[in-house]
Every structure is written in structure tokens, then in C-alpha cells.
Amino acid sequence: MAVACLYPVLSALRLGFYDWSMGTPWSSATYQGFDAFISAFTDSAVWRSLYTTLVFAFVCVSAEMILGIALALALEERKQKPLKGMMAFRTLFILPMMIAPIAVGLTWRYLFDAQFGLLNAIVGLFGVEPIGWLANEHLAFTAIIIADIWQWTPFVFIMMIAALANMDSSVIEASKIDGATWWQSVWLVKLPLIQNVIVITLLMRLIDAFRVLEVIYILTFGGPGDSTEILSLHIYKTAFISQRLGSAAAISVMLLMVVALLSWWALKLSNPLKDKE
């Protein structure tokens, strides 16, 4: 754990105090104190990227959780009335999360292509002129959201269907005997029973949403302008295009703080402190 987690964090923290470019010896690095950290917290571009990341994560994770839970409830294994073809559907449904992110980005880039994309071919059937999906700020942002939801809703679905399958069936039967409707059974029995799994899944998706890079890199590279430039992509550009590794490390520490706060919040929700008697 120390080698895999602690050392990279301390290394990034140390690098934030130096001005260093790749390809040059570390001995040529210049100590700059807290300048990179101050710049990271005062740079308007960083805050725009952080805002874009927050909106992206909120929309994607919310949609994925709602869709994943809804699909899991709809396709929950039933002992008395098993749904036909459920296993085949589950297999097909989880395929998107098995595809490499680069392939996902390329696939959706072709779908959104202004000249040869499938979406423009479909809207063209209704007499609509070709749309530059990735050339418009709002449409491009919608495109990266759609791609992320398509890829990661299956992950939420798998987690939820596994949690539902491991519930105590006697509790569900007792609620039915007491006259609970389907909605009451879901809202008052099933969801509370799998609350911990829901919170853990939410936490994992939040962390992944904050560090997503490849799909957006392929789809828009942060454009048009910086409308889809999330913080991880901004860090990449700062490090490998601008060659400001110290600044990139400082922004990475900032991102780590945001993710840590979100993790603390999610864990607190899953294990609330009880009032002392």
C-alpha cells in the first residue's frame, strides 16, 4: 500500500515545489516554493476545469445510478417467474464496460462525426441538415456525457443486481404479507437493505468520473475551446503539452483533495455516527 499509494502522492507533492520539464535531469529542477500551488488555486482555467468536472461527474453519476438501479430492479431474478432471456441480456448489457476507453472514444467520435456519423445519417432521414455535434460547446458536452453513461451504467447495474440477489428473501416475503405495494417494497425494504452497496458504487463512480481522460481525449480533446476540458485533461495538457510538470503536480494534489472530500462524504453517509446514549 505504501509503494502503490503513499509514494506517488508524496512524489507528486514534492514535484509541486519544483519547476521541472521532462527530458531534463532532475538536478536542473528549480525550487519554486508554493508558487505552483498558489497558481493552481488562483488560475481561472483550473477553476473552469474543476467546474466542468463537477458538472460532468454530477450528471453522469446521477444518470448512471438511476438507470443502473432501475434496470437492476426491472430485471431482478425472480424464482417463481424468471424472465426469459435475462442471461443473454445481462451479457450484452455489460459489454460496454469491457471495451477499452480508447475504443469507446473512437466509436462515439465516428457516431458523432459531422459528415459520416450515424447520428447525422439518422436525422438526415427527417430532412435535418448535418449537425456539428462536437463543434458546438453544449452538444460536445452532451456527447461526452452520453458516452460515459453508455460505458459505465452496466457497472452500476452489475453491482445492484448482485446486491439484490444477496438480499434476505424472508424480509421481502414479510413485506408482501404485510401488504406492501411494489413501490413500498422497493423504497422501504430493498433500497435500505442494499444501501451500503449503493454508497460504495456511488463512491467508485464519483472517483472514476473525476479521473476519466481517454474518452474525452479522443472525442473532443477538451474542445471546442475549453468547454469539455475536465480537470484530469487540464492536468495532462499542463504536464505533457506545456511541459510544466510542477504546476501539473500541484493541480493533481488539488484534484486529490477534492476526491478525498467526496470519499469522506460518501463514507460518512454509509456509516453515519450514532448519537451516544
Structure characterization notes:
- The structure is a single chain.
- With 277 residues, the protein is mainly α.
- 70% of the residues lie in helices and 1% in strands.
- It has a single domain (34-42, 49-270), classed as MetI-like (MetI-like fold).
- The chain contains 14 helices and two strands; from the N terminus they run H-E-E-H-H-H-H-H-H-H-H-H-H-H-H-H.
- It has a two-stranded antiparallel ribbon with strand order 1-2.
Structural class: mainly alpha
Q: What is the level 1 CATH name?
A: Mainly Alpha
Q: State the fourth-level CATH superfamily.
A: MetI-like
Helix content: 55-70%
- Provide mean pLDDT, rounded: 86
- CATH names the topology as MetI-like fold
CATH second-level architecture:
Orthogonal Bundle
Say how many strands there are: 2
Low-confidence stretches: none
Topology overview:
Elements: H1 2-15, E1 18-19, E2 30-31, H2 35-42, H3 44-74, H4 86-93, H5 95-98, H6 101-111, H7 118-124, H8 137-165, H9 169-177, H10 182-193, H11 195-211, H12 214-219, H13 231-241, H14 245-270
Antiparallel strand pairs: 1-2
Helix pairs in contact: 1-14, 2-14, 3-8, 3-11, 8-11, 11-14, 13-14
Keywords for this entry:
277 residues; mainly alpha; MetI-like fold; two-stranded antiparallel sheet
Short description:
The protein is mainly α.
